Amino acid sequence: MLGGIGLFLLGMTMLTNGLKELAGDALKKWLNRFTGGTISSVLSGTFMTMLVQSSTATTLITIGFVSAGLLTFVQSIGVIIGANIGSTSTGWIISLIGFKINMQTMSLPFIALGVFVQLLAPRDYKAIGGLVTGFGLLFLGIDVLQGGMAAVQDKIPFDAFSANSISGKLILIVLGLIMTVIMQASSAAIAATLTALYAGAIDFEQAAYLVIGQNIGTTATALFAAIGASTAAKRTAVTHVMFNVVTAVLVTFGARFMFALTEFVTKSINGSFDETLGIAVFHTLFSVIGAILFVPFVRPFAKAIEKMIPEKGNYLTRNLDSSVAKLPGVAVEVSFNTLQDITKEMTTVLVSLIQGKKRTAETDSRLAQIDEAIEKTRLFMDAIQSSSQKERYKHIALLHALDHLYRLSKAIREQHPNAFQLQETLTQKWLEVLEKVLLIIDEDERLPEIATLLEVTSSEMAAVRRDKRNAYFEHTVENVVELETAVSNVETLLWIDRLVYHYWRTTARLAEYQTVTKKGRHIETEKNKVTVE
Q1: Taking the model in full, what pTM does it have?
Q2: Stretch 242-269: mean pLDDT, rounded?
Q3: N or C: which end of the chain has fewer CB within 10 A?
């Protein structure tokens, strides 16, 4: 029995991972396009969970989209409600197919085909092999589970947990919760429940109360993921828990009505009452009724959660969530938004520095926040494993941007004491450029324009540095200025040139990322960017 559950879990994991890898961009486009109002958000969450066969995967993807700023928190609540409805599809698949045909006969060819694809197919197609293998293992697990359940049903005292008493109902709900927490997948827990029901080990009402507990238990993964995670992750996890717990309480108190409704719907579908199909119907009604009760109050509910869990910590890294790193496409986008925020803060610091002509306590405090954000972003990006060629290209572009931000911050800390007094004309010109950038840096589509402006500025600065450096040393030879003064001027020139260069390359790499994302295909680096690095 335990081996059957293990095979089911392994199959579900491989199936989910394969679908996420193959449909990563499709899921992003789906959410961007169809997640608008609350109803469309619920529908998006439902269909996405039916596709990846995992409400946990949908929840993690949703956390990532909220972190990336692609979804509002209100929209994410709709997606989570939809994910609960979509997760009921597993019960329908098992009850309609799983007990009607020979599982082993169907599953073994899928496993064989999937493994051969994984071993022999090109890299871009290996995910298909994992998906097919997972599908086969999932149904092989059900077959093994059926055999195990038939053998052990007489050894487990299921009769001791009768659904006729309040204590029995509570015990069954807690058992269902524990099953899901241990298995870390409500789908596997529901598969085990349906198999026990099919084998006659438990009755319909016992199975229903186990399902109620399993629906609460499925929130455990989101809770574990929220420990030490971003505010968005914590809010999403709390939303998931509150929705499932409140719905479970309501369904438990209205169990008689739910059973009668389930029987009516099942007979309407099947002609007679089939218990395993009835559990799939009960689970779906459970989630749909919860959605109907919650949807009208989504906005006040969201405000209450936001007050309960306010934003904390470094605002530059508010969106970095370790659980999001498992979703490369979303994680790379979160990294881009974070680097954009750091670049904007760096621009503000540079403007303040040039205007004040010296570093202040406030400047140092903001630089410390930037350094902390750069380090956290580096750790976050190190955990991302981009697989597709396009995502790898975007990932590399952002790593270059991160490196230039690090070098820019380091250069600022090495400021020459009299830098701005020694090169006042040059720094004033640099200030004018930065002020222009600050006005438009929030507009993503203008990043290429910023990069072009800074490229011209960097080229001009480099030309001035070459000419003036030579002139300073000539003046020294002619005894017009002392060597120490000439060296100070040259050091200042080199320092300003470094600032301009690293700032330009940061924006150029961010613009490169944005261009690749916009066109939706791999783009070779433009010729004016190739020779620089």
Answers
A1: 0.64
A2: 90
A3: C
